[in-house]
Specification:
The protein has about 140 residues and is mainly α. The protein has one domain. Strands 1-2 form a two-stranded antiparallel ribbon. Helix 2 packs across helix 3 and helix 5 crosses helix 6.
Length: about 140
């Protein structure tokens, strides 16, 4: 029997590492968002429709990774940290920014910030910008 004590932070860090180890495709994130929006339009809350949608679309481990990534995205949007990629209401993603934002959500690692699982703001925004730039137009310096 292992008597090693696991602190909540260590357990959370281990959980986030497992979430980050699950490979997600952009289309998987996009399909989860589309399905959650459809469920919302039928009267369900966004949180519950996102969870239910992910659970229906993916195996449990992948569903967890999708749910936490979407939750991290929503938290950033609610804190108005993605103003350059959302419409004035702060909720809808501008059409030109959807692909880059979804690519960042699918690939950027989650972190523990102030006790919550989220994206680190500055590196996440850099990732969005990286995906926004056309190939061959990368800044060199």
């Amino acid at each position: 029997m292992n008597n090693r004590m696991i602190t909540p932070i260590a357990a959370s860090a281990e959980f986030v590492c497992r979430l980050n180890s699950i490979r997600l495709e952009e289309e998987e994130i996009a399909s989860a968002i589309r399905a959650a929006i459809e469920a919302c339009d039928s009267g369900e809350s966004y949180v519950w429709s996102s969870i239910g949608t992910a659970m229906q679309l993916f195996p449990i481990q992948k569903a967890r990774a999708v749910i936490f990534r979407l939750q991290a995205l929503v938290m950033m949007m609610e804190r108005k940290e993605l103003r350059n990629w959302t419409e004035s209401d702060g909720i809808k993603i501008i059409p030109g920014g959807q692909k880059a934002l979804i690519a960042a959500v699918a690939s950027h690692p989650l972190s523990i910030i102030d006790g919550s699982i989220s994206f680190e703001k500055e590196s996440f925004i850099k990732k969005i910008i990286e995906f926004s730039e056309p190939p061959g137009n990368q800044r060199c310096c």
